[in-house]
Structure formats: C-alpha cells, structure tokens
Amino acid sequence: MLGKVRKKLISLEPRPINKAERLVCPICERLIPESQKDAHHLVPKSKGGKTTEYLHRICHKQIHALFTESELAQQFNTAEILKSHPEMDKFITWVKSKPDNFYERTRKSARIKN
C-alpha cells in the first residue's frame, strides 16, 4: 500500500518519451534533446507560479537574463508574449540557426544588473 505522498511523487515522475513524442521548445521551436531540457515556471515560483513548460536550456537562460521575476509574473507569462519582445525575437532568430543541442553561456542584460 502506497502513501499519498509517494503516489503523488510517482505520478510526477517523467515517463519515458517515445521518439514520436519528442519535445519542441515553445520559444525557438526546435527539438529539445534530453540533455538540454529545462523546466521554466511561466510565473516564477517566488511570485506564486506553479505551471511549467519545458524549454531549451539556452532559451530558459536567455529569458532570465532579459527579464526580472516581477516582469515575468506580470507581463511575460506566456511563450507567445515572450517571443514578441524585440530582444527575444533577435535571440530566437540567432538561435534557430544552431543545432538542437547547442548551448552557450548567457550573460545578464545591463538593465537587469543595475
């Protein structure tokens, strides 16, 4: 007999992915290799968010380099809205030309640093 907590943990475990069920990044629309898969809270956990989406690690890092948690919670809480921002659009155009498993270190924008 399994307890409630264990049942919940088992239900949250990722199930094996068939080749036909490959994940596509909602930001750059490229296939996400298992090694580059990051879960992104659409509304940051610190702001009460619970739902997540899988993104490429580089796309996820770029989002957090450009936007504060407050901005993500209030304005940029869907993939479509994120993609419409000019800086993200510039990034997406650049990263689409890279292989699916491409990763490069991302720096915080000067606006976020200050």
UniProtKB/TrEMBL annotation:
Annotated coiled-coil positions are none
Sorted alphabetically, the keyword list is: Hydrolase
Give GO terms: molecular function aspect only: hydrolase activity
InterPro entries according to UniProt: HNH_nuc
Q: Which domain of life is it from?
A: Bacteria
Q: What is this protein called?
A: Alpha/beta hydrolase
Native species: Polynucleobacter hirudinilacicola
What lineage is on file? Answer: Bacteria, Pseudomonadati, Pseudomonadota, Betaproteobacteria, Burkholderiales
